Every structure is written in structure tokens, then in C-alpha cells.
Amino acid sequence: MRLAFLGTPDFAVSALAAIVAAGHEVACVYSQPPAPRGRGHELKPSPVHAFAEAHGIPVRTPASMRDPSEVAAFAALGLDAAVVVAFGQILPGAVLEAPRLGSYNVHASLLPRWRGAAPIQRAIMAGDKVTGVQVMRMTEGLDEGPVLATATVRIDALETAGTLHDRLAAAGADLIVRTLADIEAGTAVATPQAAEGVTYAKKISPRFTRLDWTKPGPVLDGKIRGLSPFPGAWLELPTDKGPVRVKALLSAFEDEAGEPGVTLDDRLLVATGEGAVRLLRVQREGRGPQEADVFLRGNPVPAGTKLG
Fold this sequence. Notes:
Blueprint: E1 2-7, H1 10-21, E2 25-30, E3 35-37, E4 42-44, H2 47-54, E5 59-60, H3 68-75, E6 81-85, H4 93-96, E7 103-107, E8 115-116, H5 119-125, E9 130-137, E10 147-154, H6 161-185, E11 200-201, H7 217-226, E12 233-237, E13 244-254, E14 269-271, E15 276-284, E16 290-291, H8 292-298
Parallel strand pairs: 1-2, 1-6, 2-5, 6-7, 8-11
Antiparallel strand pairs: 3-4, 7-9, 9-10, 12-13, 13-15, 14-15, 15-16
Helix pairs in contact: 1-2, 1-6, 5-7
């Protein structure tokens, strides 16, 4: 089929690569405009933009898909369908309805649970045991369209947003290719979402990332893993030169008790408002991620240390 692909981050690259490999004609790729990245803050294209350029696919980076000229240019592509994966803009009805067979979104949750911007992070933070990826036909409502295909994925005890992201990206790439084949053959069936069980995955605010040790251990464990590797939940470690910010990147809940925020041993077991959390991977400010045992060789944290 003749398609347009609208996506921006790494998560979307897997789907675009699979669509190209399946032999579809990608008439144009749409992505967010180049943004400052890295220490030099140079303008760099998004991962999807870079992939498309490397494969000779035309790229457009409109500031808004609601611009009438962009709507007209999109309609003029003469598309059979459009695929949207983490594009980063709300699309108007005129864009969604322009392709002959409709516009389809790959969404990283089991709808109607976790509609919105951060479904992978929110699923882990909520303690969900299962999530998945779905292909839905897009409507103007936020992630409200009927679902055509589903792949479920178990969330493991030591799952992070990073590891779950990669597994869901792979599952989504496979799912969209199979769904496009069904759409082309006229055999795809769209099932309306349930009216019950709707939840929204709000965007992660920087104010939310600091750890509050008075919260229950299971909540903190989910927060640490759900925000790993980015933006990262963080704490303050006391040192001779003052407090140092440390990101907690991997953890596990343990049924121990103590004063919230105080280490219970010399291996980063930290008491919380309910139980304790053992930090398994951390990252001191200005340095790379380290497993806890490696970190402790250069940064000993004795039992009884009060963390901020």
C-alpha cells in the first residue's frame, strides 16, 4: 500500500523499519522538527527522521499538522493509509480521514487503560502485571478509536520502562505489519473499546521524579523502575562535600522495616513508609549508570545513612 508514517522517537523506528521491510511504499514520513540534543545543544533530527533520510524517504517536519497548507499537502499524497506511532501532535479530522482506508495508531497499552502520553511508564508505576500493544483506527478523541489487533506482554518483577519499551516496540512493529496486511485484504475487524476501565497516562513532570521515602515501598519500587532510564527517579546522598544527586535506575521491594529514608544495611537497602526498597542500579550525577555493588566500591553507604 501507499502509506504515510508519522512518528518521532526510537519507539516508532521499529514500526517504520518493519513497514519498509514488508514492501509498502512510504510516500512521506512526518516527524517533529529537529530539536537541540546532546551537550552542544545542536539541532538534530528525531530518530524517525534520521531513519527515513537514511532510506531515501521524503520527510516533513511541520510545527503543526493543523496548518491548512500541511493538511492540503497530506491529502495530496493520495494515500491508502497512514500509520501513526508516538508522533507527538494531535491530528485533526481532516488529516485522519484523508487516506482512503483510514489512519492507524500503534499504542503501547491495552486500551482503554493508559490512554495518553506515558503508557509504558504508568503501567509499571501502577504495578500492572500485564500490558501490551494495540493497533487502533484513529478518531479525533484521545486514543478512543476501535481496536483492530492486540499483542499482550507480561511485565516482569525487575522490568524498567527501558526494557518494556524495547519489547513493546518489537511487538508493535510485528503487529502493525500483520494488521496492514489484513486492512489491505479487507479482513481487518475493528472492535470498539470498552466504556469501563478508562485510565489516562499523564506526561511525566520533572517535579514528580524525586523519591519521597515516606511513601510505601511498592509505590517507590514501581516509580524507580517506571522512570528508568529516563528521566530517572532521584535521591540525595550525603557526602563530606554536601549532598549529591543520585538516580535510582533499578530496585526491588523487600519486606523489612525502619525509619523512612534510612539505609538498613551497607548494600543500599532503604527503609520506606511501608517495607523497604533495595537499590540495584544507580547513577551518580555526572557519571554513568552502575550496578549497586560497583557504585558502593567508590561510594560506601553504611547502614544508618539518612538519604534525602
